[in-house]
Amino acid sequence: MEQIKHSHVDVRGLKLHVAEIGAGPKAVLFLHGFPEIWYSWRHQMIAVAEAGYRAIAIDFRGYGLSEQPAEPEKGGFMDLVDDVVALLDTLGIAKVFLVGKDFGGLLVHLVAVLHPSKVSGIVTLGTPFMLPGPNSDPTQYLPKGFYVSRWQEPGRAEADFGRFDVKTVIKNIYILFSGAELPIAGDEQEIMDLVDPSTPLPVWFSEKDLEVYASLYKNSGFKFALQVPYSATGKDLGITDAKVTAPALLIMGEKDYILKFPGLDGYIRSGQVKYFVPDLEVVFIEEGNHFIQEKLPEQVNELIIKFLNTHSN
């Protein structure tokens, strides 16, 4: 971990935290989800750098060590897409491999659709092609206690999280999202109440890892993270007939609760997803869960590096 270098880069008026390791003309940019952060890619960054690539991970605006936007409540997915493109220009990277997980995978698809000339290939973990908008918002098909629905309600997640310290919030989310079932609270419950306080951390997520996450979210808080992705999820971006022309790899964990989203499992396994991403390889990992790159880093690293080597010119 010591060999990963950290800096802040001016991007569209904000200083974004950038972690980087490796050198050379072939770059890989990692985009995190929630409750993740640049650190979520620690295993992949080192492996990709050792394979000869320049590995870069960022904290999105409003996350971790990156600066907060002036009006976080107005943030949307396109702010992050524009940040990614501007960052690549600032770093002098003409073309890049993008790797994203969770809502970071949504951003990977958006960049690939809107800026295809900048993308050599894409890898998404747990995120098949779905553009943000009313039709892809899962809350319309699930009970009102579904965690996304709860976190979209103004002030509700803040009040729920505010009962605990940041470390406990991150711990609870990691425990909850590691399961194979959708996190859905009852009428008299909040999402944090779904976790028994005596439940230990997953064996692949150490107390040291938790401390790193907690320190980063203590710095940024959760305000922008609850805006993007949650409050921004149902907003139409006005993109129609979108397709990804770059080669793509989708890595899914068989035990990822995302597969319980209505229709999602069939969408992937039937091949419907390839209508939007024609040059797509899909790999399911039996013991993989929502945090597949942290739980099973060696398997994920092998798949990513094979994909990079196959599609590097």
UniProtKB/TrEMBL annotation:
The keyword Hydrolase applies. SUPFAM superfamilies: alpha/beta-Hydrolases. Keywords: Hydrolase. Residues 27-294 form the AB hydrolase-1 domain. InterPro entries: AB_hydrolase_1 (IPR000073), AB_hydrolase_fold (IPR029058), Epox_hydrolase-like (IPR000639). Coiled coil: none annotated. The keyword Metal-binding does not apply. It comes from the Eukaryota. One of its GO terms (molecular function) is hydrolase activity. Belongs to the AB hydrolase superfamily. Epoxide hydrolase family. This is AB hydrolase-1 domain-containing protein. It comes from Erythroxylum novogranatense.
